[in-house]
Amino acid sequence: GESKKGERVKVYLGIKVKAIEYHRFTKKVRIRGVIIEAPERIHSKGSYHTLSLGVGSRIRIVKDKITAYHEKILEMASSKIRKVLLLSIGDDEITIGVLRPQGVEILASWSIVPVKSDKTRSIAEMYKEPLRKTLKNIKEYIEREKAEMIVLASTNLLMSIVISLINEELPSAIKFTTVAVFEGGVSGIYEVLRRNDLRHLFREVRGIYEREVVESIFLDISKGDEKIVIGLEEVSLASKIGSISHVILVDELLFDPEVRDKVIEILEKTIEARGNITIIPKETEHGSKLDKIGGIVARLYFPIMLQK
What we know:
The protein has 308 residues and is of the alpha/beta class. 33% of the residues lie in helices and 26% in strands. It has helices at 68-78, 123-145, 159-169, 185-194, 206-222, 232-240, 260-272, 285-291; strands at residues 14-23, 28-37, 48-53, 84-89, 93-100, 103-111, 149-154, 175-180, 228-230, 244-250, 276-280, 296-300.
């Protein structure tokens, strides 16, 4: 007889969650649990099932209650971040990056070689056509990332010619801000991010705010500030007496089954005390720095004596 090709049919499965794992490399969350709702025809109730969720996955979450902690996490996760592209142009390299919530992501870099001919009268003219060709590639990234603003970082040597080409080649609806840098390329992007006088450009980018928070905490630690507590145990003890005004932690603690419950308790008690929460990706520069001292610190409303 003829073999029939199997047909995929979408079904709704409801599972009671038993374990959650976050795979940082694939950026997926694996949720394992027992099936409690399913069509009768597939006879799967009581069996274990694993869901693999990534960006764009759609699920329905049912909880016994929604706490202030849950609302805070949802607010942080759904906050709108303005799409800002960083375009850094130097004498021998052009780099484009995008500011994500966790920081800057380098999208591409190109080498640039000035073209000399008998007709060129200035150094800027030698760069004009190579820059024009590269800007056409950059236009594709702008459209793909749906950028709302471009921060153009360039050396003084090329600034005027770059601005002229941008006005010719890029969509007029996109706003751009110019910044003079010592070097172009990747170095120019990080120079822009480090400069205090340019912080106002990135106030809506969470990664910049998170770095400022960590730098401020480490400065206070170096001064011996008694209103700073470090490490899971000390922060937990401080949270139980409602003394935390701001807790800062790396995201990995929320996915560690050995400490997850304690961390969630800290966050809940921080919100009860009208404190703030900042969760920082471990793989960022400032997240890695925080991880080296236990992954969690807190600023207190007032100094306390901790009895362990």
